[in-house]
Hints:
The complex is a heterodimer of chains A (about 260) and B (about 270).
Chain A: H1 3-12, E1 27-30, H2 36-49, H3 51-54, E2 58-62, H4 68-73, H5 76-85, E3 89-94, H6 98-107, E4 110-112, E5 150-152, E6 161-164, E7 169-171, E8 180-183, E9 187-193, E10 196-199, E11 209-214, E12 218-221, E13 224-227, H7 228-231, E14 240-245, E15 248-253
Chain B: E1 3-8, H1 16-29, E2 34-38, H2 46-49, H3 60-65, H4 70-73, E3 75-76, E4 83-86, H5 99-111, E5 116-120, H6 127-134, E6 138-143, H7 147-163, H8 165-168, E7 174-182, H9 184-188, H10 195-202, E8 206-211, H11 215-222, H12 233-245, H13 262-267
Parallel strand pairs in B: 1-5, 1-6, 2-4, 2-5, 6-7, 7-8
Antiparallel strand pairs in B: 3-4
Amino acid sequence: MSKSAQRASTVDRPESFQLKGGLFPMTLLELKSTDLAAIKLELMEKVTQSPNFFQRSPLVFGVEQLTEAQQESLDLLGLCTLCRELTLLPTAVRGANARLLNECAKLSLAILPRSRGKQSELTTETPPAATETTEPVEVTKTTTASAPTRIITTPIRSGQQIYARGGDLIVMASVSAGAEVLADGNIHIYGALRGRALAGVQGDENARIFCSSQEAELVAVAGQFMVDEVLRTNHWKDAVQIYLAGGRIQITPLPKHN
Amino acid sequence: MAKIIVVTSGKGGVGKTTTSSAISTGLALRGHKTAVIDFDIGLRNLDLVMNCERRVVYDFVNVINGDATLKQALIKDKRCENLFILPASQTRDKDALTKEGVEQVLNELKEMGFEYIICDSPAGIEHGAFIALYYADEAVVVANPEVSSVRDSDRILGILQSKSRKAEQGENVVEHLLITRYDPERVARGEMLGVADVEEILATKLLGVIPECQSVLKASNQGVPVIHDTESRAGKAYADAVARLTGEQVEHRFLTPEHKSLFKRLFRRSA
């Protein structure tokens, strides 16, 4: 074989390593402020809540929720230092602007492209913060909801799947175990929810699920979901509303009046 | 006007054939001309339970294929002059049943003056069960008070509501729930689902509750539908259920643990 051909073949099939694509779960820290003192305090609280989860976890900083001004003023070095003190390992920054790209290069952090629309990010395993007070959830105007509300009066049986496209769904009976109800908008169940309910399936994070008795197998809003094991500890068999707050599923009892 | 009633369940072994034979016999004993059809092609057992397995010459598939007339295939019950049985084929399988063929047979039965046509469905949700329920006006959904049976019955109810011919025409199949193998003592101990639990999950009107009873096995072995055993609890419960099916209001019995007198406890085992 000629020398050049020989060299080419070793480059094609390296002997000291193998290059492959891989998918690895990483914790995303989506920044909402540049106040490092506040971040440090709140992060320490989260770490003490679930220490094992945070030990030496690779971290990705998301900066897409920061304003342009905030991205300009973000002290990336300071942020990395405080994270490392808590044994979190900054690995990459997602959605950085020109200035932050520069900073990343200086700090040897990887650069990840902006998030593509509503990719479902799994909720973290940290137990839901026990907040009894209802957090004020911003209700922004929804841009979809082009179809009239679909109303179903008979029980949804095991194996059936109902999808209310472009609007809300109202079920005036129970949803059996093994059945699925989906809607682009809200889902109201005037009965027991024993199956699965997925609201806001096209990405509407303001969608909610209401039911008279929460006995669900799975609930999801805009891709964030909560499964049976967690649901059983969360107002099981109560009349509840289920919604997203802070990117996580919250379940709160419906107001009772006698 | 003839009523087509399908006896179905989803789950196997819960008592469909027992129920089909009991209900069809009960209706015939009340004076209604009744036909009971075995839709379980290849695994037929209605003829065994009704003691006519040795009189099967032509079967359901023969009639559909035109090898025999309906009159030749129908077997008259020995105990009950109003009752006729259309057995299934043992050598073919469920694909031999076609929608058109079944419709023709059902229409011919109506023309012959039958008031009730009971369709004994096979287990499952595939072609055989689907064909059995397709033309039904009413359905008796049989369930044991046990989680998998209830879940499967829920599934078959969904299929009845969406895939039957009535559903296609925008109407409803009248649904009845029949709970079989009910043991009130076990329910009281919390080991078994109670009537209220099953009713809540299935949200269907209760036709009857048949208690767990040793007479059922005896009846099946002898080829005598259990409703003929008027002493047994199961026989009595089936008679009540048939009465309710024809529109009578009958109180539900055998729902609570039997109060055993000392005499009974000394001299008799629980039935």
